[in-house]
Every structure is written in C-alpha cells, then in structure tokens.
Design goal:
GO terms for molecular function: ATP binding; ATP hydrolysis activity. It comes from Cerasicoccus arenae. Pfam families: ABC_tran. This is ABC transporter ATP-binding protein. By secondary structure, the chain is of the alpha/beta class. The chain is built from 9 helices and 10 strands. The chain has a 6-stranded mixed β-sheet with strand order 6-7-8-3-9-10, sandwiched between helices. The protein starts with 5 loop residues before the first strand and ends in a 12-residue tail after the last helix. Adenosine-5'-triphosphate binds next to strand 2 and helix 1.
Length: about 260
C-alpha cells in the first residue's frame, strides 16, 4: 500500500508549447505505491504533464524529482538510467502489429538486458500471465480485443520491472466492463508489485475506482486546484470547478427549459 514517502516530487513546474502556456506552477507529490490520477477537462494538459514526467518534454520552468533525485537537471546517462525504472502504456497499447504479444513484451528485454532468447520468452510469458494473458503469447495484436491489447501494453511496460508505471487513458475506447477489468488489474498490480501508478484519465468511474489520490488541473485558470482523494474532493472540495467535474455537473444550477 501507499506510504507517505514521495516517489515523485514536482516543484514549481511551468508547462508550455513555445509561448502557449498550458499550466503554471504545479506542485505535488506522488507517493510510493499509490495510484495517482491526473484529471481535468479536455485540453487542460493531462497528457502534457505525463510527457513531462517521463522526460519527453522539458519543463519551461521548475523541477521533477524521483526518489529525491533531480530528474530535470540530471545528465543524459543518469536520466537514461532513471528512465529504465519507468514503464509507459500509451493509448491503445501501442503494440507492434507485425509482432506477437510475446515478441512485443520481449522487445525491451532484448534491448536492455543480456537475457537469452529463451529467457526473454519466459519472462514475456510471465508478464503476460500477470495481466491475464497466459496462453496468448503467439497471438498478434489484430487477433485480440482492444482491452486485451491494453493489457498486453501494460505487460510490455512491466517488462523491465519498473517501479513506476504510467498509463495514458486506460479506459479510452473500451466498453464499461473491459474498462472495469482494467481498473481491477491496476489495483491488483499496485498491491502485488508495490508499484506506483500515474494514470491520466477523465473517466469518472475509473477515477473513483482506482485513485488513491488525484490532481485536478484547471484549464480555465491554468493552475492545479487541488490534490487529494477524489471522493473526498467530490464531497468536500472548496473549489466549485472540482466538485462540478467530479459530480458530472450535477451540482450546477438547473437550466430553465421552455
Ligand atoms: N505538440 C503541441 N503543440 C502545441 N500545443 C499543444 C501540443 N500538444 C498539446 N497542445 C495543447 O496543449 C493543451 C493541453 O493538451 P493536452 O493534450 O496535454 O491536454 P489533455 O488534458 O490531455 O486533453 P484531452 O483530455 O483532450 O486528451 C491543449 O490546448 C492542446 O491543444
């Protein structure tokens, strides 16, 4: 379970594309072993924040720390090493269509370890079994469902035993049942692996199901409004925008009809 110790610390982070400012002065911590959700309305900067956390985009200002070590200012070698501790699952799973599931999961192992082909196959099978895909090693992505592709993407993200896993929009494109199964899997992996999850989603059902804590990014003010447990925020937030989002607008004044 989550400890109070921060896995990630973000300090005074400004995010921008050129002159276009996305968010100002983000400050928050992600605790070890928790599921931390990045939430907010469309276009508020959720994916942009994820890209900052995994080093795809450099901050306009501010710093990101992992286990107390400065990721933003780290030199290339140190950064590369830190990156190997991250597992990333992109929307849709982002699997190579010409490779089987075992080959997809084995790809990072071939690149970053000295394991033999046989060992790689064994680790890939094990990772696939962790996400409920035992027996699907030799299937191609086109032969399995969207939900299974996302699970295979998660297995690939876990290939190098990362201690922090990033997941971009796990529910996107999934029916409610598959989405629920994926949520259950995230919680199961949090508990069994003790991994820290950072998840981008705007699906309320998922947010309430998986998030130990969440950050709300406000597109209007371009600041974070709050970091807390989402149920607590829904019922007690001082910010109307946060309550409105988490209540799907049901606290909004009724619109006169007719
Ligand atoms: N490469 C880019 N260049 C310039 N602007 C960008 C770029 N990528 C995103 N933006 C803009 O930055 C803002 C934040 O985008 P981002 O994709 O991070 O939002 P989001 O909260 O993930 O959105 P959604 O929920 O719709 O996926 C948006 O206004 C978007 O148009």
């Amino acid at each position: 379970m989550a400890s109070e110790e921060p896995k990630i610390r973000v300090e005074h982070l400004d995010m921008a594309y050129g002159n276009f400012v996305v968010m100002n002065d983000l400050n928050f911590e992600v605790r070890k072993g928790e599921v931390f959700v990045i939430m907010g309305g469309s276009g508020c900067g959720k994916s942009t924040l994820l890209k900052h956390l995994i080093g795809i985009i450099e901050p306009a200002k501010g710093e990101i720390y992992y286990d107390g070590e400065n990721f933003t200012q780290a030199d290339d070698d140190v950064k590369k090493k830190m990156l190997q501790g991250f597992g990333v699952t992109y929307q849709g799973g982002a699997l190579w269509s010409s490779m089987t599931l075992a080959e997809n999961v084995g790809l990072p192992l071939g690149e970053f370890t000295t394991l033999s082909q046989k060992e790689i196959r064994e680790v890939a099978s094990y990772k696939l079994s962790l996400v409920g895909l035992r027996g699907f090693e030799d299937f191609y992505p086109a032969e399995i469902s969207g939900g299974m592709c996302k699970r295979a993407g998660l297995a690939r993200a876990m290939a190098l035993d990362p201690d922090v896993l990033f997941f971009d929009e796990p529910s996107a494109g999934l029916d409610p049942i598959s989405s629920r199964l994926l949520d259950d899997l995230i919680l199961e992996l949090r508990d069994s692996l003790g991994a820290t999850f950072v998840v981008v989603t705007h699906e309320l059902a998922s947010i309430f199901a998986i998030a130990d804590r969440a950050i709300f990014l406000d597109a209007k003010t371009r600041y974070q409004l709050e970091v807390d447990n989402p149920l607590k925020m829904r019922d007690h937030s001082d910010f109307e925008a946060v309550r409105t989002f988490l209540l799907r607008g049901e606290n909004a004044a009724p619109v006169a009809v007719g």
